[in-house]
Amino acid sequence: MCTYLTEKFALDGSGKGAQGYFALTEAMVYVDHPQHAPYEHTVNIDFLNPSQGPSSRVAVELTEESALALIDAIRSALAAAPPGLTSNAPASTAA
């Protein structure tokens, strides 16, 4: 059963589409029928930048187990990184 509930939030990052990398400004997470994955329902995540048009979208369709494993992996990777390493400060250009 589809919930029709969508979690939408702003984010900062980059995604890679057919035309190369582009800035990401928001994401949506919802449970629904997938467009491509061979399952009845999936956890769908859309990373996008609406100001750049429909081609500025990266879509992911995951099983519930895969979505939960991804959450755990993200938490583990962030916990293992030194404090402040993943802040939103611009990358250094110094050599």
Describe the structure.
With 95 residues, this protein is an alpha+beta fold. It has 1 helix and 4 strands, in the order ββββα.
Write the layout of secondary structure elements.
Blueprint: E1 6-17, E2 20-32, E3 42-48, E4 57-62, H1 64-80
Antiparallel strand pairs: 1-2, 2-3, 3-4
Notable features of this structure?
globular, 1 helix, 40% strand, 95 residues, four-stranded antiparallel sheet, alpha+beta, 18% helix
Summarize the structure.
With 95 residues, the chain is α+β, with helices and mostly antiparallel strands. It has one helix and four strands; from the N terminus they run ββββα.
Largest sheet: 4 strands, antiparallel
How much is the average pLDDT?
Answer: 90
Radius of gyration: 16 Å
Arrangement of strands in the largest sheet: 1-2-3-4
Number of helices: 1
Q: What is the oligomer described by this structure?
A: single chain
Q: Structural class, please?
A: alpha+beta
Helix-strand pattern: EEEEH
Write down the overall geometry: globular
| Strand content bin | 35-45%
Number of extended strands: 4
Distance between the termini: 54 Å
Helicity, in percent? 10-25%
Ranges with pLDDT <50 over ≥5 residues? none
